[in-house]
UniProtKB/TrEMBL annotation:
Pfam families: DUF3918 (PF13056)
Protein name per its UniProtKB record: YrzQ family protein
Superkingdom, natural source: Bacteria
Alphabetized InterPro entries for the sequence: DUF3918 (IPR025029)
Amino acid sequence: MNKMITPLVAFGAGMVAYNLVQRNNLMSERQMKRMMRKVKRAMS
C-alpha cells in the first residue's frame, strides 16, 4: 500500500510545482522538461 501512496504524493507535489512555475514563468521550457523527466524516473 505504501509503495502506491509515495509516488502519488510525489506526483501531486510535482503537479503543484509545475502549476506554480507556469503561473510565475520562473523556469524555461527546457528546464521544465528536464525536471519532469526526473520526476518520471523517480516514480518508476
